[in-house]
Each structure stands twice: as C-alpha cells, then as structure tokens.
Amino acid sequence: MAKTPRTWTGARTPSGLKRVRQAQRRHEVLQPRRSAAKTYVAKALAAATQPADSSIDPAAALAEALSALDRAAKAGAIHPNAAARRKSRLTIKVNAAVGGAALQTGGRVVKTTGKAAAAKAAKARIAAGKAGKAKGAQTAAGKARAALSKTARAEAAAAKAAAESAAADSEATAAKASPARTTAAKAKATPRKAATPAKPAKATAKTASKTASKPKKAPTKG
Question: Domain 14-98, what fold?
Fold first, then answer.
C-alpha cells in the first residue's frame, strides 16, 4: 500500500513552531531596516559617482547613509562590526569619488601629536577622571557618614588642643607657686664637686726630726 508523501518538512513540536513564529516577526521588523540602510548607501554612492545626474548633495547623502547604518546596528538588524565596516568602506569610496577628504563626516578624527604632548594629555585625562570619581555622586547615607566623621575629627582636634593648653597652664601656675622647690630641685640636679683631701703635715715633722737626730760628722785632720 503506497504512503502519501509528507507536505510539511519544518518544525512539528510546539517549541519549534514558536521559534518559527518568533523568527517571522523578527524578520518583519528588522528587514525594512536592512533594506533602508542598503538604499541610503546606494544613494550616497550614486550622488558621489554621478553628481550631475543626482540632485542630492554627496555630503548629505553620506550622512544619511551613515545614520541609517547606525540605526540598523542599534536595532539589531546588522552586527555593529558590520555597520562599522560598511561605514568605513562607504566613506572611503565617496571621498575617492569626490576627489578630496572634505566628506569625512563619519568616523573618528585622529589628530597627530607628538609623544610628549600625547603623554601630557593622557596624564591630564587620568587626573580629570580621578577627580571626577572622587567628586562623584554620593548617597544621603554616605554624605551623612562623611559629615559625621568630619565633625568627629574636628571635635577630637579641639579636645586635644584644649587638653594641651590646660596642661601648659597648670605647669605655669605650679612653677609660679613654688620657686623654692624649683631652685632646690635644680641644686639637687647639679652634682657637687668632690673636696680635695688636705696634704698630711706629719711627713714634714718626721723629716725635720730625722735631720735633727743625725750627728754631724767631725771634720778629719789632714
């Protein structure tokens, strides 16, 4: 018995059928954006290569094409890298067709500077970024904590200064009240010089007695 051929070869499960419906809706939304981008690109090329036939300004047409590519990339109709690539190639073609670099409406302008100037500019950007981060927006709780810590530091500094001044005043009053104590303390602090011992007088008396007791020798006759 012959079998009838299958007429439906797509998805059969509920999830597969849902994916088909999603792809169809996505195609209906994104395809017009792709077509519009291609149309604007073609118009820009035509205005640049054949300026006599078209009444559109090449610069305006190029700007519209770049804007259409950006919109398509933002909506997800084309990949952002593909949009950037097409914009670059379109700009190069339009500039080559016109014969100058006056139509550089899209892309990034690169400035040629020296190494020293570039390093200086980089340092300035870093410093500005750090300053901006330091002065960034704070929450109410963060501001309250900062104010509290600031007041606490100020109170601690004031208390320390008051304690130091009170200690200095007390020392001054103590010095005025007891000058004798201070002089006595100074006298105690200075060491006394050791007294030099007196020379004994016995030594001289002994030598005198010895000289007196010794008899004198009689002179010898010749």
Answer: Methane Monooxygenase Hydroxylase; Chain G, domain 1 (1.20.58)
pLDDT per position as a tens digit, 113-156: 577 787 888 888 888 777 766 555 556 666 777 777 778 888 88
Question: Above 80 in pLDDT, residue 208?
Answer: no
For 75-88, the pLDDT digits (tens) are 999 999 999 999 99
The token pair that represents 184 in the structure block: 């006595």
Q: Which amino acid is at 50?
A: Q
| Residues whose CB falls within 8 Å of the CB of residue 16, separated by 6 or more in sequence, listed in order | 10
Give the pair of three-digit tokens for residue 6. Answer: 């299958």
d(CA 75, CA 25): 14
The rounded distance, in Å, linking the Cα atoms of 67 and 42 is 14
Quote the tokens at residue 103.
């139509």
**Rounded-to-integer distance, Cα 155 and Cα 208, Å:** 88
Q: Position 219: which residue type?
A: P
77 closest CA partner among 88, 65, 68: 68
In the chain, where are the structural domains located?
A: 14-98, 148-184
Least confident of 23-27, 59-63, 138-142: 138-142
